[in-house]
Amino acid sequence: MSAKLKKSIRIGICGLGTVGGGTLALLRENKDEISRRLGADLDVVHVASRSLEASDAAGVARTGTDPFAVINDPNVDIVVETMGGFDPAFEVVKQALANGKHVVTANKALIAERGNELFAVAEMHNVALAYESSVAGGIPIIKALREGLAANRIEWLAGIINGTGNFILTEMAMRRCEFHQVLRQAQELGYAEADPTFDVEGIDAAHKLTIMASIAFGIPLQFSRTYTEGISQITPDDISYAKELGYRIKHLGIARRTPKGIELRVHPTLIPRKQLLANVNGVGNAILVRGNAVGSTLYSGPGAGVSATGSAVVADIMDIARQMLAGIKRPLIPALGYVEMHDNIEVLDIESIESEYYLRIPVIDKVGVMARISNVMLEHDISIDAVIQKEAVSASVPIVILTHLAEERQLNKALRAIEALPDVIGPINRIRVEPFNGGVGA
Ligand code: HSE
């Protein structure tokens, strides 16, 4: 097709920070290739940024600071929301959809916490709300789960879905340094936010897990039901003891379908060191998905970054552009991949899950301590798999135990009883263990 006959799909961008700026740059850099793939041009016609300077510097026909001007612009076909946060992002997206415009967003908090409402608005107005870039940056995991694996009943998925957290745990393991030292380094390198709570306390990962679980199992988005535990309590000693036992510690998001309900949990996890996920280092992300037909598949790559996230945003824009160019009047694929959701599957509370556990118990070094701890475990029907007891260098010494599978409620009762023993001189550090029986990479 000759270039001058090409149709134009007109894009408006709200927010020109890392992701919005990266999207604009990528649309320019790969303009020719994108245009060849689509048989049409993607033209950015209107941008809004908090900074008028950034907006003016974008070199776009219409610029400003007001995102509502973008969503009310009759020349804009597709709105890209890359502002982040809820206010005004929620209203911007909602009104854009109500205006009959397709929206592409990178906003994981918005989708995880308000997505159910926004998808309903999109459906009512026959427009798409696309969100590939909200999970795992440049890895096309939404498309893989929703389309590539659509024939499967997904059994579970587990992922390293926060780059900052993975960088910190990797550095702690390689250089044997404390959490707070590495966190400072991650901030200096620009991986972690100035307020890194969302990264290190697992909230960012919980947003991403919530979204993936909804697509995997066809359940409504349930961020408030996702159990979230961060990595700030992990010590270099835990990493060393885990290594001695044949494991690495990773911050995982796990979603699993069980006969009792769905498990949705983000927490530090011991993984056998030969597993592929245990070997994903630095700021990388990876997600392992188990489908009943395909078996296990692994997706890995950059989970953050300007061009990686821009790549996912632009792919969403291109999907919508194709639909528009084909004259299709409503999105072919439901936002979460299901026309009929499973509304009545319960998300389990954390005490109802079953797991194996790593326990680090600080005790006074005296005869019979191990026997007393073993007795409590036996009384609570918790079976011990392995034990490490180091020689005492002071009056106190840690006992490290790996358990077999146990219900968390029962384990908690045992831990309370062990902490009440006079020989136990501090809180027990408990980390869940995921052996990935039957997964790939073993
Ligand atoms: N802060 C996030 C991370 C960025 O470290 O993974 C991508 O969501």
Structural overview:
The termini are far apart. The protein contains 15 helices and 17 strands. Strands 7, 8, 9, 10, 11, 12, 13, 14, 15, 16 and 17 form an eleven-stranded mixed beta sheet that branches. It has a six-stranded parallel beta sheet with strand order 3-2-1-4-5-6, with helices on both faces. The protein folds into three domains: 3-138 and 306-325, Rossmann fold, CATH 3.40.50.720; 141-302, 2-Layer Sandwich (Dihydrodipicolinate Reductase, domain 2), CATH 3.30.360.10; 353-433, Alpha-Beta Plaits. Helix 6 (108-124) links the parallel strand 5 and strand 6 (129-130). The chain has helices at 18-29, 31-38, 52-57, 67-71, 89-98, 108-124, 141-148, 163-175, 179-188, 197-200, 203-217, 236-244, 306-325, 369-379, 408-419, and strands at residues 7-14, 40-48, 62-64, 78-81, 102-105, 129-130, 154-160, 227-228, 247-258, 261-272, 284-291, 295-302, 354-364, 384-389, 396-403, 406-407, 429-433. The relative contact order is 0.13. With 442 residues, it is α/β, with parallel strands linked by helices. Helix 1 (18-29) crosses helix 13 (306-325), helix 6 (108-124) runs parallel beside helix 11 (203-217) and helix 14 (369-379) runs antiparallel to helix 15. Helices cover 36% and strands 25% of the residues. It binds L-homoserine. Residues 137, 162-164, 191, 199, 204, 303-304 line the site of L-homoserine. L-homoserine binds next to helix 8.
